[in-house]
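anyone else get weird line breaks when pasting these?? whatever heres mine. first is seq + tokens for prot A
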Amino acid sequence: MSNIANYTNTYDIRGHEIEITAPARFDDQTHKVIPDLELDDQAAKLALEKFRKIYGVVSSEKMKNLRKKWNLSQRKFAKVLGWSPSTVALYETGAIPNVSNNRLLKILIKDDKVMKEFIEDSQKNEM
């Protein structure tokens, strides 16, 4: 038998220790944490969210919203940014962008004029 209770754990994200408290499954006899994919995934997502807030990392939702705002597929968006399509897909599914890519995303989210210039430049390069 097992039960669910709050558990405080520390995650190492890009060399930064992120401590969170989240529900975890415990063995009733040993009182030790036991694997539970759903609860463990939720805890990891909370740690990533906390990391994003602390270090100002663009969320996957904000990135998707930027892409959709400009009516770009992942492939076109990647071309506009000079990234690989797999990088865009990874970031949109929750991977943490590297520092320079995060800075670029923040600028493009904040400034429509810059985003428009990036799109126009990528279209010129297609010709």
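and prot B, same format (seq, then tokens)
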Amino acid sequence: MPMHVGLDAAGLITSVGPTLAKLIEGPLPLKVAFLKVFEVRRPAGITSIETLRERAGARLHVNLRGKGDAFRGLAVPTQGGGILLNLSFGIRLIDAVRQHALTDADFAPTDMAVEMLYLVEVKQAVMTELRRLNLSLQGAKATAEQQALTDTLTGLRNRRALQMALPALIAQGVDFALMHIDLDYFKQVNDNFGHAAGDVVLRAVADALAVETRASDTLARVGGDEFVVLLPGLSDTTRLAQIARRIIDQVMQPIEFESTTCCISASIGLTISTLYDGPDAARMLCDADNALYAAKRAGRAQVKFYQPHIDLSAVTDDLKTA
């Protein structure tokens, strides 16, 4: 019984089990009154060795004074009027093992606490593995969701992501601008140098957009050579025109592909949420698209703003395929 306490007839401690001695952490309280070292919390009213002897066989709740350790146990009379108490940790077993660095050697071979410890260790190992798998699944899900919203060629958002971002921005109620960009002469790059050259050009355009916009802006490739940019918090036409002009200047920089140079430009149509009583995603995309082709009709590499009082929708088919 590694957690026993032996008492003589006067209630003085005559022996202490080795595990219990570890918890006392100091000189063993031999020849010291049991009730000075321990407090019997339940049953209530045990204040002397006589009342303890009267409750022999009853389940006891005992505290180690000054230590906070709580035990459960039984008191059994011995020859000569003494008492033998056999204590255990009860439901505090796991905390006690951690707190006092106990091992199976600190428990009796027949004590079911050892089996309980093994079960707890197994449970902890299983729970740890389940948490790891759950985090891995969450990470895989987040990665899959991110990939589903990303254009694989340029790394920008894709059309699906834009279809989510634009209504969400409208719902916030903030002013914003919508910029629709179409590349000029991109078809000639594909026709003359092949689609590999076109891919290089598209990635260069994505880089140019990233340079001239903010981290809070949404950049999306929505078609072969079409891009949409959402600019929250921007409604000043002068500033927006400056941003659009810088983008065009960046896009017009020569792009090297193998042993040749690719040259393109960009046309940009813009609309602003403040032009609408209640911004609508489809309407704004359509208006920016009309402004874009007005820019193409004006000679390409141009910027045009949607103007509600001017009909910009009359655009020829050849311009829409340029």
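btw re prot B: The domain at 4-109 is CATH 3.30.450.260 (Beta-Lactamase). DSSP finds eleven helices and 13 strands in the chain.
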